[in-house]
Write a structure and sequence with these properties.
Layout: H1 7-10, H2 14-20, H3 25-35, E1 38-39, H4 40-46, H5 52-64, E2 68-73, E3 79-84, H6 86-89, H7 92-101, H8 105-118
Length: 128
Amino acid sequence: MTEPTPPEQACPIAPVVDLVFSRWTTPILWTLNEHGRQRFSELEHRITTITPKVLTQRLRALERDGLITRTYHPEVPPRVEYEITPLAKTLVPIFKALATWTPNLQKVHTARHTYDQTHKPKKAHDRN
């Protein structure tokens, strides 16, 4: 019997996908790339479905990963800004490629609809 292949060898891009395409990472990086340096409130305004707690957690994680920088300005009131790093900018071609693919989502929706119509679950009384 052969040993199972570790996931990172079976699919070497899996760790990248986990890092970059997690629930909130992509919208944050996309927003910072498209709109430049942003304050926390600007990010909240642009990514309306994220909670402040989750945004804070993701920003800290992205800073730790070297994908964004956080700049604190000791003013009254204090100002904090976030921006994408050169490392994260290397992901921009991937984001642009995915953006060009988005028109295909309509085909996915159509395929799902077709599948659902032809694979409807049978009702209990139909199974007898």
